[in-house]
Amino acid sequence: xxxxxxxxxxxxxxxxxxxxxxxxxxxxxxxxxxxxxxxxxxxxxxxxxxxxxxxxxxxxxxxxxxxxxxxxxxxxxxxxxxxxxxxxxxxxxxxxxxxxxxxxxxxxxxxxxxxxxxxxxxxxxxxxxxxxxxxxxxxxxxxxxxxxxxxxxxxxxxxxxxxxxxxxxxxxxxxxxxxxxxxxxxxxxxxxxxxxxxxxxxxxxxxxxxxxxxxxxxxxxxxxxxxxxxxxxxxxxxxxxxxxxxxxxxxxxxxxxxxxxxxxxxxxxxxxxxxxxxxxxxxxxxxxxxxxxxxxxxxxxxxxxxxxxxxxxxxxxxxxxxxxxxxxxxxxxxxxxxxxxxxxxxxxxxxxxxxxxxxxxxxxxxxxxxxxxxxxxxxxxxxxxxxxxxxxxxxxxxxxxxxxxxxxxxxxxxxxxxxxxxxxxxxxxxxxxxxxxxxxxxxxxxxxxxxxxxxxxxxxxxxxxxxxxxxxxxxxxxxxxxxxxxxxxxxxxxxxxxxxxxxxxxxxxxxxxxxxxxxxxxxxxxxxxxxxxxxxxxxxxxxxxxxxxxxxxxxxxxxxxxxxxxxxxxxxxxxxxxxxxxxxxxxxxxxxxxxxxxxxxxxxxxxxxxxxxxxxxxxxxxxxxxxxxxxxxxxxxxxxxxxxxxxxxxxxxxxxxxxxxxxxxxxxxxxxxxxxxxxxxxxxxxxxx
Length: 689
Description:
Radius of gyration: 27 Å
Mean pLDDT: 88
Helix content: 55-70%
Distance between the termini: 33 Å
Structural class: alpha/beta
Number of strands: 10
């Protein structure tokens, strides 16, 4: 590591308004008008839909169940109405051709002067995969001729001992291959997870760098993109953070390619819409973004929330909160959706999406404790609310389906009270208006799907993008395939997210597990274990609707079919697919140079580290062993007051074992990592045969 350059990063007081450092977040009349259009338009659409739905249900008066259906419908329609008006804003932004922060990808490459650190946090990831993407990014940066302004830090929070030593070996190999300014640090305790990892770097080295660019384990960026971000930050002194729009790439399975296609076709429209009304109060997604280091240190230190997990403790989805705190302090946060060269990968299967969603769900629900923080802007509160709503909407959809089904069951099996108590000139007929209901359904689907068709129409006007997708006809067929498959998977995701919300509300902590990246192949046994509840719920819906009326079953067939086919759908979409076909994207058809370099490096490094046991690897490589020992805090010596049980137990077990194999068999995963961080235990392991 380089010499330390400490920078204070105090935890913020959520209940005291901070001193603003600048006026970077002032709203112009134009931006106020845009927000009025987005929210006013969504409210107008919701009001119209609410009136029509009321007329559907109000045939002879509303029952309590019908009132419940109406309220849930209004809340959920407001959600899709906001997405619709956001898409209209995105179309306006794209048609205007305006360049955010003056960043023009076609202009000559600028020459910034600020020093920037590229930070790669990693947690139990496959090292060669991560380092291949990082090396490709560095090579692309070197090609710009501006690499001397950048240093790269691998910030490991890895807890698996074998992966840890493999990271060190991969790091030494990377530094030998590139000769670049690469640094590696592993924290012995991954306090506060990723947010704590970044904060540890800021407090130790942040003063030496004016900016830091945060990457994720699956991130790849072009040197052109990085240099333009650094230049934009330097030219905009009030800017604290600039977020790019990462393009999803590298999909091998049908599920991953589906997400990749949807993100590439619809993502720019959505992101441009957000940028259009967010203005200088935009959001942060945790990676592929450049941040002014002193702004982050001064404004974004996160306190622990009061209470027990899953709502208390350290903040899980830290990125939304960090952006909100920077805006609160007067720094502007910008979304630059039109800058190419920023890439990431998506989950390879439905189960991987569910695992990731479970973690994100807990973090977003935790934001309920952040909403009342003093001094947050309206936009920041909306970011937090939409994050919460993206998961709360799932159980609300499920509740509306159940309420509608109970309403139908009541009409079918409960004798109506035509003449309730009290004076009435006419009998009360429990019924709904089926014709108006069909119109409401059609209007709702139009609001839901029109943004996709708007994105398709805008793509047709971009010749390069149109050819990259495979032409207008193939893209249209791909879009229809995406709508069909996403429609089948939507009820499965709805149920998974509902289970996640309920389990979190019951007090269950989701933990922190690394994601699968390439292979999402799912076996039938695992699929049945994961999606059996979804299938049983689908059977319940099918039985209930069949008992009421076949037309009702046909009406609910998309939900029923999606749930009944959850297991085969998950297995089928998790299988690798050959390139080509309907779900093609420009980056898949003609991969940019940096993505080709990352893929080639990954292939060349495959098998070079493998899953070799850590102690055997250290025993066989003197340079690696020297590096490992030098990188340990206090060179692995026990400091006074260090009574961690894992270290003490690991020492005892290693001392008692007659052979290395027996010692390793006695150690748990945590104890093995503790032993490799303790010079005494490590020396004993190396001496054993």
